[in-house]
């Protein structure tokens, strides 16, 4: 009897994997979304921002630029470009390499919530770090830190999970993001 149950389970898992793979692959073949079907503008979609109450969640709008899926991947859900320095051209975007352990733990954070994690700052050049008020020896300068948030999830909850995953965390509740870092 156990063999029958085991075979049924294996067949069901194979069917689920096949269906999920088919859906995933067909989404890449579908091509661009027809704008006439979804006529809303970014302005209509973006929520209004306001000062949060204690424990409140600010639903940050997603980046205005279209989400790109080409380029080298840092992990299953993040492009390397999401971690690049966002200066006004002072550097080539990569004054330092990102720490692979940090990338792995941020991917684990994303998988825990099963929701997008938005990286607002990854590696920084010294000039950009000074512009944003970063400390002189910031972990951002060496690719060991990233600022992030998870839309719809309180930043203190994101911080708690990040700490459980072994990240150092500085919380910025007024701005609703967390600074996550790897200490080396």
TrEMBL record:
SUPFAM superfamilies the UniProt entry points to: Hedgehog/DD-peptidase (SSF55166)
Domain of life the protein comes from: Bacteria
Residue stretches making up the Peptidase M15A C-terminal domain: 77-167
Identification of the protein by name: DUF882 domain-containing protein
Upper classification of the organism: Bacteria, Bacillati, Bacillota, Clostridia, Eubacteriales
